[in-house]
Design brief:
The complex is a heterodimer. Helix content of chain A is 76%, strand content 6%. The two termini of chain A are 72 Å apart. Chain B is of the alpha/beta class. Chain B folds into two domains: 135 residues, 3-Layer(aba) Sandwich (Rossmann fold), CATH 3.40.50.2300; 63 residues, Arc Repressor Mutant, subunit A. Chain B contains nine helices and six strands; from the N terminus they run βαβαβαβαβαβαααα. Chain B has a six-stranded parallel sheet, sandwiched between helices. Chain B is elongated, with a radius of gyration of 22 Å. Classes of the chains: A mainly alpha, B alpha/beta.
Chain lengths: 630, 221
């Protein structure tokens, strides 16, 4: 947190002496803590201040940092700023065409991220660069485009600049009235600016620019009025020194041109003295040129020549070709230098003027080319975008079609699979139902036999028995009685159980109770835990009869102390296991017994299995499984 | 002096019918009517106001024209008509299934077994019946208790209670010791309810008797 706080501290202390150093420190700290938005903010501030201070290296550093940030985070804001600083970098290196190019790039990014203020600002910069490069048409286009972005967001500062630019452009083109209309509009907007200092500066610019339009028009009186009005503003000589010079010098120029040079002197002298004090070479070339002009007007050839020479020196020093030509022109005018030297001056002047003109033309061409290329690029981009979109759409459609095809294929496969399964299941179920029906039929047959045995055979036997008793054949009647009882038992064995009135669970408990004793305990597990009502009656019957048969066997033969019955029911099968700890028997010997045979038959009828394991003197385990549905 | 009790006896065997009649007459002053099939017996019951019915369960002499085939059906028919008559079963059927179903579903006032029955038991049963009590032969009782044993053995909670009860001084100490199959504890009220049911099932007078009977019957070791 301390580090973050110090970054904020560095960022916010823009009034301090070592501001650039501190901003640099803020940049380093931001990089250290890898905080992307802080890195962006610090570098933007650092880059801008570096530009103001003309620190090319620092500006380049800010540019590189932003570039890295963009590469890492794809932050468009950083990319726009990166191009912006590249443009500023070229501006400082006087490679204005490159500068223009990068401004345009930066602007395009800002358009993409819908940052209207940044778009407007870049267009303003472009308009200024274009105006300086004499690409008046380009500058006008940029300015008007800039207004499109800035006016809707109610920006005062840059809108004002754009209108000023349009005014200057019209002024250059000799359309002074139009120029003043633009400048008035700029003033109107600037007056809304809540920032007092900016407002004042804009108004000073306004007076100066309006003055110049009148000077260029030849209306010196009006020019002087406006320039004076500008100079009358409170303490501008201290607060806005460079603007003050400008006004003073333009006023002086107007006086000279008005043929009232004597009024010009004081202002020119004052400006010149101040520039000397501030070592302003560029400014000095202007003021010496003006002084020379003044002395020519005053017919003081000597002093005029002196100042023209000084003007040339300073122009050369500050590498300002335009001022150099102006100085040369003044020198060539001199009547006190010999012919030869004057000719030299004139020749140099013409050569320089030519090269200036040429340079202007090339720059103009370059600008035009850049403008054209940017336009073309934008158009191409638009076309490409549409093409891309179309392609994307096609791909999308193709994808969709493929997906639909795929889905349809899968769907059909699934449907086919399901139908096959349903068909198979249905066949199985039908087969199973047929099997159950068969079982029921056989059960009915058994019932029929049991009933016949009971009603008819046993009934006839009883009548015979009564007959014999009447005839006093007691011995035969007695043996006949035992035959009757046997038949009745057989009938009972055959007769089935049904679970309509008494539930399977209760009947099984009743069955077990009949064999339960303190010497032979029988336990049942899994009876109450499962829902037996879902089972077919034939299955329950088989389970019941099997348990009865095996418990009976165990009770009769096994001499066991414990019989364990375990019932399990799952989705597919019913399982029964009957376990005793009795004497056991030889399974292969007993396999043919009627009880076991009967049992096996009933289970197999239902598609089930029975497994009997018996170890002599250890016990017997019988395991049964019956499929319950499918 | 009360008027003699009116009794109907139904059995398909004339010999047995005669035996029962003589046993009844031997010990008391009853007005007894007999019948060898259920349809006839039902008609008689509907006509005259009888106090008690003694009936067998299975009738071997049924024919195609028989409407009421068994003792169970006869009892159901009487109960359906809401005829005010005490019902006693006297039969040879000792299979738990039949016995339990008759007692459980038809709730007769008495269930006697022919082969063990004598005049004394018969009269004792009549006294009980007329006293609005229920009487079962000893063997029938044994069967019912055995059945209860099998049921109790399937009830994990009951087994736990029976095993733990002798170890505890108070029933409330069982709380937290007894758990359901899913591991959740059982409340005191449920435990007490369960114990009450167990006492009824095993015919025990108190919890100590219950434990003794459970041990005797082999439910717990």
């Amino acid at each position: 947190m301390v580090e973050k706080d110090s970054i904020l501290y560095y960022l916010n202390n823009t009034k301090r002496k070592n501001q650039l150093k501190e901003l640099k420190r803020a940049v380093d700290l931001a990089e250290e803590i890898h905080h992307d938005s802080l890195i962006r903010e610090t570098n933007i501030k650092f880059g801008l201040q570096s530009y103001f201070k003309k620190k090319v290296k620092n500006l380049d550093l800010a540019h590189q940092n932003l570039k890295r940030l963009y590469m890492r985070s794809q932050d468009s804001l950083a990319l726009a700023k990166m191009f912006h600083y590249k443009a500023l970098f070229h501006l400082l290196n006087f490679t204005r065409d490159s500068s223009l190019y990068y401004y345009a790039e930066s602007k395009n990014i800002s358009v993409l991220i819908k940052d209207s203020l940044e778009v407007g600002r870049r267009l303003l910069s472009m308009a200024n660069v274009q105006r300086d490069g004499k690409d008046l048409l380009g500058s006008e286009i940029s300015a008007i485009e800039g207004l499109k972005y800035l006016e809707p967001i109610n920006d005062y500062r840059y809108t004002g600049f754009l209108y000023t630019n349009l005014g200057l452009l019209s002024s250059r083109a000799g359309k002074y009235k139009e120029a003043r209309r633009y400048l008035n509009k700029a003033k109107e907007i600037n007056e809304k600016n809540p920032n007092g200092r900016r407002k004042t500066r804009a108004i000073l610019n306004y007076f100066n620019n309006i003055g110049i339009t009148y000077i260029n028009e030849g209306n010196y009186d009006k020019a002087i009025t406006f320039l004076k009005e500008g100079l009358a503003l409170d303490s501008i000589a201290i607060k806005f020194r460079s603007k003050y010079y400008l006004l003073v010098e333009n006023l002086s120029d107007a006086y000279i041109l008005q043929k009232n040079p004597e009024k010009a002197y004081q202002g020119l002298k004052e400006a010149n003295d101040l520039k000397v004090k501030n070592n302003d070479t560029k400014g000095l070339s202007t003021s010496h040129n003006l002084l020379s002009k003044y002395y020519y007007a005053m017919n003081d050839e000597k002093k005029a020549l002196y100042h023209a020479k000084r003007g040339l020196e300073f122009a050369k020093e500050s590498k300002h070709l335009l001022r150099e030509t102006r100085a040369l022109k003044l020198l060539a005018k001199s009547k006190i230098v010999n012919r030869k030297t004057a000719n030299e001056y004139l020749k140099t002047y013409i050569r320089l003027n030519d090269s200036l003109f040429k340079r202007e033309r090339t720059i103009k061409n370059q600008f035009a080319r850049i403008r054209f290329e940017t336009d073309k690029k934008e158009k191409e981009n638009a076309t490409l975008k549409i093409e891309n979109e179309n392609k994307q759409l096609e791909i999308e459609q193709e994808k969709q079609q493929k997906a639909i095809g795929f889905l349809v294929a899968i769907g059909s496969l699934l449907l086919l699979g399901i139908s096959v399964l349903v068909f198979k299941n249905r066949r199985k179920k039908l087969a199973f139902e047929a099997q159950l029906q068969k079982v029921e039929v056989r059960e009915e047959e058994r019932q029929q036999i049991a009933k016949s045995l009971h009603d008819e055979v046993a009934g006839d036997l009883r009548m015979l028995h009564q007959q014999l008793e009447k005839d006093n054949q007691t011995a035969i009647a007695e043996s006949l009685n035992s035959v009757t009882n046997n038949v009745r038992n057989l009938s009972h064995q055959l007769s089935s159980v049904n679970f309509d009135e008494v539930s399977f669970q209760d009947q099984l408990v009743n069955l077990v109770s009949d064999y339960f004793s303190s010497t032979c305990k029988i336990s049942i597990r899994g009876l109450k835990e499962n829902d037996w009502s879902i089972l077919e009656n034939s299955i329950k019957r088989t389970v019941y009869l099997c348990i009865r048969e095996n418990v009976q066997n165990a009770h009769k033969h096994a001499k066991t102390t414990h019989i364990k019955i375990r019932l399990t029911l799952d989705k597919n099968k019913a399982y029964v296991s009957i376990e005793d700890t009795g004497v056991g028997f030889n399974v292969s010997e007993k396999a043919g017994g009627i009880g076991l045979k009967n049992q096996r038959e009933r289970i197999q009828e239902l598609g089930g299995k029975i497994e009997i394991q018996s170890i002599i003197n250890k016990g017997t385990t019988i395991q049964i499984e019956i499929p319950i549905h499918v | 002096m009360f008027s003699p009790l009116k009794i109907v006896v139904v059995d398909d065997h004339q010999l047995i019918l005669d035996g029962i009649m003589s046993s009844l007459k031997e010990k008391g002053n009853y007005e007894v009517v007999s019948s060898t099939n259920c349809d006839d017996a039902f008609a008689k019951i509907k006509e005259g106001s009888f106090d008690i019915l003694f009936t067998d369960l299975s009738f071997d002499n049924s024919s195609f024209s028989t409407k009421i085939e068994s003792g169970e059906h006869l009892i159901k028919a009487i109960q359906k008509e809401k005829i005010a008559i005490k019902i006693a079963v006297i039969t040879g059927h000792t299979e738990t299934n039949r016995l339990y179903n008759v007692i459980h579903n038809l709730k007769p006032s008495a269930y006697l077994l022919k082969n063990k029955c004598d005049a004394t038991e018969l009269n004792f049963a009549i006294k009980k019946i007329m006293n609005n009590d229920v009487y079962y032969s000893h063997e029938v009782h044994q069967k019912l208790i055995k059945r209860a044993c099998v049921e109790i053995q399937m009830d994990e909670v009951a087994i736990q209670i029976l095993k733990e009860l002798p170890k505890q001084s108070k029933i409330s100490n069982l709380v937290g010791v007894i758990h359901k199959a899913d591991g959740s504890p059982i409340k005191l009220r449920s435990i007490e309810a369960k114990l009450a049911n167990l006492r009824i099932d095993l015919n025990a007078v108190n919890n100590t008797d219950l434990i003794l009977k459970a041990k005797e019957l082999g439910i717990i070791d």
